[in-house]
Amino acid sequence: MGRGNVLDLRRLTGGPQSAVEASRQALKTRQLLENRLEQMERRFCETLAKNNELRAEIESHNKDREAFEQLCQRLERDIASRQAELDTVRAAIAIADEARVSARRSATALQVANQREAGAAEEVLKSLADCQGADKQLLLAQAQRLEAMTAAGGADSSPTAFQLPSAAQCELLISQLLAITGIGDQHLRQPKTSNCKNHTSSEPLQQLVAYCCRLEAQNFEVFSSCNQANEKLGALQQELEQLQAEAAAAEAQGALAQQKEVIQATLAKRDAACKRMEGFRDKQVGIERRLALVRAGVAAALKALGVVPAQPARPQDPACVFATLMENLGLFETRARAVVAVYSTILGKSGAAANGLELVDAAKQQLVSNRTRLHQLASQSGIVLSECQDTVTGFQQAVAETQCHAAA
């Protein structure tokens, strides 16, 4: 039988020690409840102290996290600036490579043209040298013949001793001179072949010598004019090369200017896209901070309610978050009702019952306030999640635009 049944039997039998035993049992029960209350108060104080320590630790960790996030943002900005400088250097290198290739092509073309012109000039000089050698040989042959004829005329001055060349020889000499020189035909053809037999003086020979001298003088004049023409041609070729070089340089500068304009426009678009991307990143970081604060507030509220919050592997929808909060609220209500029932069972008196009812009312008010707060937190978390989604969408669009500009 239980102790309660024994006490009831003693009370019913009305033994002498029933009242004393009942009072003693009441004192024991009171002492036991007071001991339990002290233990619970001690545990509650220890829990509060631990909560304060955890709050201070969480605040310190939050400060460290904010400092680390600021450092990460600064490093990301530095990396972005270095990447922009690297892209600028790469663009300049590409432009320099294109200019180098065009300059090499123009230099190759100029070398080919120079070689072609040098070959033509060498051929012209070679032909002129050949002509000059032939003229010298002809003049030497004519001089030797004239010297031989003059010596023969001086040795024997009689008309019969000096024999003029035959008509065929005169014609052959005249034809050779005409074939080589091509000028002075009428002067040479004035004396007839029949006169060569009749003349016994040296006047035709002197005329021929004078004509040869005059022809040599004309040949030297033509040769000097050819040299002057060659010099003028060389000067004109140099001027043409300079003009071609200036034209190539002007074309290269024009192409470089156009490329610079296009590159500057592309860089301006890229900088604008980068600025927009940085703005979206800053906005995303701010929204993530707000979301982290909301989650920390929800976790603190659930921890204050005595419910261990679950850590999802990935972000949930606002509806799932609201359902989880409602489930935790239901658990809290069940626990509060159990606590109130235990207190009412332990006390078992009217005053205790009144206190239990007051506790139930206070618990209900706290439940209502906690539910309102959780509703607010859920609405704020939904707003923050929607802002995060909008920010992520804008960030993706900015990244796509930046990639398009970079590809262009």
UniProtKB/TrEMBL annotation:
Coiled coil as UniProt keyword: yes
InterPro entries noted in UniProt: ODA-DC/CCD (IPR051876), ODAD1_CC (IPR049258)
Coiled coil: 23-92, 226-260
Source organism superkingdom: Eukaryota
UniProtKB keywords: Coiled coil
Pfam families in UniProt: ODAD1_CC
All copies of domain ODAD1 central coiled coil region, residue ranges: 28-127, 197-304
PANTHER family: COILED-COIL DOMAIN-CONTAINING PROTEIN 63
Name this polypeptide is given: ODAD1 central coiled coil region domain-containing protein
